[in-house]
Amino acid sequence: MPSASSPRKLAAQRFEVMTALPVDRARGVRRVLWLTLGLNLAVALAKIAYGAYAGSLAIRADGFHSLTDSSNNVVGLVGVALASRPADSDHPYGHEKIEAMAAGLVGLSLLALAVDVGRGAWSRMFGEAQPTLLSPVAFVVLLGTLAVNLAVARYEAREAVRLKSSMLESDAEHTRSDALVTLGVLASVIGVLLGAAWLDWVAALGVSGFIAWAGVGVLKRNLGYLADSARLDPALIEAAALRVPAVAGAHKIRTRGTPGAIHVDLHIQIAPHLDVVQAHQVTHWVIEAIQHDLGEVKDVVVHTEPAAPGQPHTPLPEGWKPAPGD
């Protein structure tokens, strides 16, 4: 049961978290992006250099696929820097959607690359490209870069969850697709070394299709953020609100936003005998309960209504009155 002092204490703690988290989160995301930028560049250059030397369309295409990881890291660094700026008069809800916009560019770059790789595969299919010359060194290059890609994808995915970053989530998916594409290229290398050179352009076509699929997935997810798709199950928000004393019901629940910066608005019904000051305090308890239960919620807007006569609710503590300043 809430006491007169606990709501103020919770509010102070929540203010500290809400003011510190965006800075810490942005710094953490940038640190991940800088680290993965260096690793992605090393992977891309290794594949491109060997692919050009050996005349392997599949390995070269895989290298340029990896290169987009690096360009996406740069886009992410810029996007996160802009998204971490505080709210202002022109952007009263903050700038978090800029990160989703930057993540959406990852999807567009994947689609553009899919077209380029598809064209290359078409040329190789009809003998317009240079013949493939491969050696066992290809296995060293591909297996080494595959190991790096898998490590980077796992690291980014873990940090995306911890930092609640749509940019890291999208980039991890991009890097994961790069690793799976490399497995396909390895299969083509085996085929070429065994005398089935046609597997090279077949693998390139597979690379093109997989890149396009990943690009559509990234775009769909981030366009959902930008289009204010629902972000949380209304039942979770209703449950949090109903735990608060004097709250009899919650409805018209809506959510929107990006990972780590979700906005909630809802209507609550409270005991009709409460005065304005008590109703105001109960409303703030509801806000605090939602933010406590659902850590990704940045802001809550509550419309308070009187409950219908006889509508059940948990009573307030006997004799409770808001303390001055509540």
> Which range does the strand content fall in?
5-15%
CATH topology of the largest domain: Alpha-lytic protease prodomain-like
Structural class: mainly alpha
Just name the CATH architecture of the largest domain.
Up-down Bundle
At the first level of CATH, what is the class of the largest domain?
Mainly Alpha
For the sheet with most strands, the description reads:
3 strands, mixed
Contiguous uncertain segments of 5+ residues:
3-21
Quickly count the helices.
8
Arrangement of strands in the largest sheet:
1-2-3
Please report the total strand number as a whole number: 3
Binned, the helix content reads: 55-70%
Report Rg. 26 Å
- The CATH superfamily label of the largest domain reads Cation efflux protein transmembrane domain
The figure for the number of domains is 2
- N/C terminus separation: 16 Å
Mean pLDDT: 79
Which overall shape is indicated by the principal axes computed on the Cα atoms?
elongated
Write the H/E string, N to C.
Answer: HHHHHHHEEHE
